[in-house]
Amino acid sequence: MLANKILNNNFISSTDKDGHEIVIMGKGLGWQMKPGDPVDPEKIEKIFRMDTVTSSEKMKKLFLEVEMSSVEISSKIIQFAQETTQVELNKNIILTLTDHIDFAIERYNKGIPLKNDFKLWIQKMFNEEFSVGLYALEIIQETLGIQMPEDEAAHIAMHIINAQLDGNMAHTDEITNLLSMCFHIIELKTGKIISEKSWAYERFMRHLLALAQRIIARTENIAVNDSLNLAIQSQFPLEHDISIAIRNYIQKTFNFMIADDEVTFLTIHINRLLQDV
């Protein structure tokens, strides 16, 4: 195996036996190397392969910007996640998870809070993925000697969840923001604090997560009877008004107009949610 390009002391690009570009990680691997030099197999710690040229270019750029420890930590988390969930994660997760962890560490060191308002829900609804997040905190502590809060475990769990759901980790923050804003709109319109302990809350969160996936995938909604839409609107005017506000937020933020049937489903969920307040 020969070096194609020396990215820095710890990363070089090469080509595998099938002619696909790979990025090789190893402490001091690129020191004093030149393009065309053979790669010392004993210095190889990890080999990264992406599916597209674009992804490969993004990976090379990212690895030049982040700490090597962030890449190492992410690699261990991903391997543990695949073993724990028995699900093959999208390869792009190495990009966004590494970027997230590198930034999270920077924020932690600067004393910026790493709060996650959905920690309890994620822990309850996605226990396996949350356990991956807790494992990640252990790896971070072992590697860097810092103890991050469990809120960060929830952030990492969301990356694992999203990698399984749509394979595009660039949308993790969008999903989290959508969930947060929906509840903010409900509480703003009603003046009530939503309980996270009810079954209605869990069902609503599942519905919102599925809605977020449809928005990202730009898929059509399934139509229901117009008479049902009108009946629900008439029976639950406050909840319907809240659903319209959520629809307006989604249209403005994601440039995606949800159909009347989705507004109806949101109205029903919100009505059940408010009954448990």
UniProtKB/TrEMBL annotation:
Which SMART domains does the record match to this protein? CAT_RBD (SM01061)
* InterPro entries membership: BglG_antiterminators, CAT_RNA-bd_dom, CAT_RNA-bd_dom_sf, PRD, PRD_sf, Transcrpt_antitermin_CS
Could you provide one GO biological process annotation from this protein's UniProt record? positive regulation of DNA-templated transcription
Please indicate if the UniProt record lists Repeat as a keyword. yes
Q: Which UniProt keywords apply?
A: Activator, Repeat, RNA-binding, Transcription, Transcription regulation
Q: Does the keyword RNA-binding apply?
A: yes
**A molecular-function term among this protein's GO annotations:** RNA binding
Query: What is the protein's given name?
Result: PRD domain-containing protein
UniProt organism field: Fundicoccus ignavus
